[in-house]
Amino acid sequence: MKVLKARHAGACYGVQRALDMAYAAICDGSTAYTLGPLIHNPQVVSKLEKRGVGVASSLDEVSDGIVIIRSHGVVPQVKQDAEAKGLPIIDATCPHVARAQKAASGLADEGYHVIAVGEAGHPEVEGMKAHAEVSGGTCIVVAGPEELPEHIEEPVGIVVQTTQSKEALDAVVEALHARGIEPQVKNTICFATRQRQEAAAELAEQVDALVVIGGRNSSNTTRLYDICKAICPRSHHVETPDEIDPAWFEGCAVIGVTAGASTPEDQIDSVVERLESL
């Protein structure tokens, strides 16, 4: 079987930056903790823990050492609390996420009622929401137009989770237009996310089966899988090559491979190697 890799796949700049910052933090033997997983990739998080970067669910679990703000960002209060405890901070927030946070805060400061298009409860979205609300603004989170409340106070400003699809944003904007609302839109979707989604869709049309690599807790990887599955029904989501079942590819001549933005190159290589050995 022939194995084709998507033109754009795997770890993005923000993820690689966060990893580099985490490893640099402990290169001199320092103790470090991330608040929640640094990135949504269980295998990478496990490797970091073995190297000395622990995972804390909150600052209550950290009494000393370096606090690493993960790539998804945090609510502003977390940084203030860490500083109050005298804990040194390394901010590994993805620059694109930081831009979305700033956009949410800016809209709120200008008097807009903010709508964040994304997944409620996701750490990145919670951070965006908190940045909009920190100065007394309002922010609601919707995954799509069906979640828009019946009454929406104007003026409306929109920000988007960086790993969302442009289609999700457009659907919400269109629904608001249908109500006679003209929102101020800050398209904060990461370009790398869009690249990976377009490349995955392109690849899915060329192959008999497709493997999407990445953490199951990764929203951008899950979205890649959904995109591929809709085009190529024989698409499969795996975290490691051990999960691959040869039966998935019976009768296949060409297999595609793509990976989420939190998937390092070595994980992609190991899956490709496994597929090429079938």
Summarize the structure in short.
The protein has 278 residues and is of the alpha/beta class.
Layout of secondary structure:
Blueprint (H helix, E strand, L loop, with lengths): L1 E4 L7 H13 L6 E4 L6 H10 L1 E4 L9 E4 L6 H9 L4 E3 L3 H15 L3 E5 L5 H11 L5 E4 L13 E5 L5 H13 L5 E2 L5 H14 L4 E5 L5 H13 L3 E4 L15 E6 L5 H12 L2
Helix pairs in contact: 4-5, 7-8
Molecular structure report:
This protein is an alpha/beta fold and 278 residues long. It has 3 domains: 2-10 and 191-276, 3-Layer(aba) Sandwich (Cobalt-precorrin-4 Transmethylase, domain 1); 13-94, 3-Layer(aba) Sandwich (Rossmann fold); 96-185, Cobalt-precorrin-4 Transmethylase, domain 1, CATH 3.40.1010. The chain contains 9 helices and 12 strands. Strands 1-12-10-11 form a 4-stranded parallel beta sheet, with helices on both faces. It has a 4-stranded parallel beta sheet with strand order 3-2-4-5, sandwiched between helices. Strand 10, helix 8 (219-231) and strand 11 form a beta-alpha-beta unit. It is flat and about 60 Å long.
